[in-house]
Amino acid sequence: MYHRFFGLKEPPFSLSPDTEYFFAYGHYANALNTLIVALRTGEGFIKVTGEVGTGKTLLCRKLLKSIGKNFKPIYIPNPQLSPHGLQVALAEELAIPISRYTHRLLNLITARLVEYANNGKHVVLCIDEAQAMPKETLEALRLITNLETEKKKLIQVVLFGQPELDVSINDPAVRQLKQRITFSYQLEPLDKRGMDAYIMHRLRIANYVGAYLFDEEALNIIHRSSRGIPRLINILCHKSLMAGYGQGQRIISKLQTDLAVRDTDDTQMIHYSVASKRKNLLWLSASSALFATLASFATYFATH
Question: What digits encode the pLDDT tens for the residues 256-297?
Fold first, then answer.
């Protein structure tokens, strides 16, 4: 739809965690480098936390693509599992026949991990949304990481989760797991300079050619409204480009970003003067109709 209007090969602000769009800036680059070094040095437990929308899943997938051929990566996106369910998920990824007996299944997992170690492979288990993992499953995970040879761990674990993960790990019931965490990293929102570079980075990946597509006032509104959270930045940029397309505007200004902010939940509203508020109420009433019209266009083009 709008991407052709702006000379793009595809919409650049999709919410899908596409590693082609990974932004190696500041703490994101530091986090990736820290994770790679920690895994290569054989650390057992690593933890990455960040607020909703800060890019943990994208970082996780980028890590899995970056660690090299000597690693056997395993990815579990939904950790709401029982202890036995965790073993089953791990066994499936390791192509092990499933046993309903916990002790036998653990023995089979151990044998396969030893096999990988003997072949010079490091098994890395990445668990996304780890804050949802039950405490008894966290303890079962710790017991799995007890598997080791005289020289190294047979499996390394990277936990990606929201700040609630720290609350779970601070529970006395899983204090032994907390002591096993050797590296921790916290993802922070983007600062204004970083956000500007982030937006331009995604536009360039989508083959944008030209000067800034968003003017400075529009960028200020996006940063203040999104609080620097990449997911919200993507949503606001996407809706701003939709509005620009609908209005025939090739440079995104305050006019389009105001519409995007008012059509998006969880954005930080900006304080306006009384006159400005009255003016924007008119735009607010028009914004729903605008986005509904654009959605109708999208449906039409998708079916014809």
Answer: 999 999 999 888 655 443 334 444 444 444 455 455 555 554
Report d(CA 90, CA 267) in Å as an integer.
38
pLDDT tens readout for residues 94-105: 999 888 888 888
Could you tell me where the DSSP H helices lie in the chain?
Answer: 2-5, 26-40, 56-66, 83-93, 102-118, 135-144, 164-169, 175-180, 192-205, 216-226, 230-247, 254-262, 274-303
Closest CA to 221 of 205, 206, 239: 239
Alpha-carbon distance 187 to 59, whole Å?
10
Domains of the chain, start order? 2-11+190-299 (1.10.8), 26-187 (3.40.50.300)
CA-wise closest residue to 23 among 217, 199, 209: 199
Could you report the per-residue pLDDT of 1-37, keeping only the tens digit for each?
788 899 999 999 999 999 999 999 888 999 999 999 9
Whose CA is closest to 157, among 68, 57, 39? 39
Alpha-carbon span 54 to 230, nearest angstrom: 6
DSSP 153: B
| The residue to which tokens 């437990």 are assigned | 45
pTM beyond 0.90: the answer is no
